[in-house]
Amino acid sequence: MTKKIVLSGTRSTGNIHLGNYFGALGNWVRLQDDYDCHFFIADWHALTTGYADTSGVKDSIYGIYADYLACGLDPERSVLFLQSAVKQHAELHLLFSMSTPLSWLLRCPTYKDYLAKNEEESSATYGFLGYPNLQAADILMYRADFVPVGEDQLPHLELTREIARRFNHFYGDVLPEPQALLTPAKVLPGIDGRKMSKSYGNTIAFADDPEAVRQKVMCMITDPARIRKDDPGHPDVCSVYAFHKVFSEGESDAIGEACRKGEIGCVQCKKNLAARVAAFHTPIHEKRTALLQNRPRLREMLLQGSARAEVQAEETMVRVRSAMKVDF
Predict the structure, then answer these.
(1) I want to staple 306 with a disulfide (CB 3.0 to 4.6 A). Which of 19, 81, 171, 284 is the partner?
(2) Which domains does the chain have, with CATH numbers?
């Protein structure tokens, strides 16, 4: 039987961190067994907000690709590629922009949130407004059956489906509508208690060396109401406990109970967590570091994957151009 196609990607705006792994990448690794997987590095998407300073894009591409491989994505089992190396993405994005109503783009939650946080008009670029068209091109180019998402991302996928429906209405049944693949995700807060995000600078990345990781764990925010070691704690408001629920599965309930009874201090709890995180993080960090020692080989592998993607992309574009009568 032909495997169903899955597609997803990561913007090249920094290195993969633990939040990315437990929120998405770890699931991608498991999906390789059951699906025809396509995972890409979205370097063009990085420009929608980072257009003014592109100095770190190339380093980010190498870092993310090394993260992909070190975490278990396999170029023999999945198509791993670079968005900008497959020029058909830009062509399909352009064609979608001709038929996508402006009102659809203006109602996009990400666009509205971004405008609310960035009041200057110069921050609202055409590229950022039109990124859903590029996102739709990324997905529909490979005729993806499924896109692994969390529930908060469903509106974005629905917009891709709407773009496909509108295209098919005008030009015939050309593009399949992808379905959401709701995959289980474990949520990790940042070391400061907020959402783990590169923009907040509160991440634990696979690029961090083991000592940096240990220091970050020891600096994590705990229960602010707990002053002394034997004070009863409130683990549900503690970032360290949130990590224990991921890294100390099977023991997290006992850890939470010991905290509530004041039987374990925050410093010792952090030390225990640091050891658990290191056991998971250090092997991936070391593999990533070794891979980055040979950047020419990484580039060659990524371009090989991109060449595979380009063959599939051109097959789709032949159908699209023919349907639109722009194949003169």
Answers:
(1) 81
(2) 5-188+295-324 (3.40.50.620), 208-289 (1.10.240.10)
Residue-wise pLDDT for 11-49, tens only, equals: 999 999 999 999 999 999 999 999 999 999 999 999 998
| Contact status, residue 191 vs residue 220, Cβ threshold 8 Å | yes
pTM of the model: 0.94
> Strand 179-182's sheet: what is its strand order?
78-82, 36-42, 5-11, 146-149, 179-182
Could you report the average pLDDT of every consecutive run of 10 residues in the chain (328 residues)?
A: 93 95 96 97 94 94 98 98 98 98 90 75 80 97 95 90 98 97 89 92 97 97 86 92 94 94 93 97 98 98 98 98 97
Mean pLDDT of the chain: 94
CB-based burial label for 313 (10 Å; 0-12, 13-18, 19+): buried
CA atoms within 13 A on the CB side of 210: 11
How far apart CA 2 and CA 35 sit, in angstroms, is 9
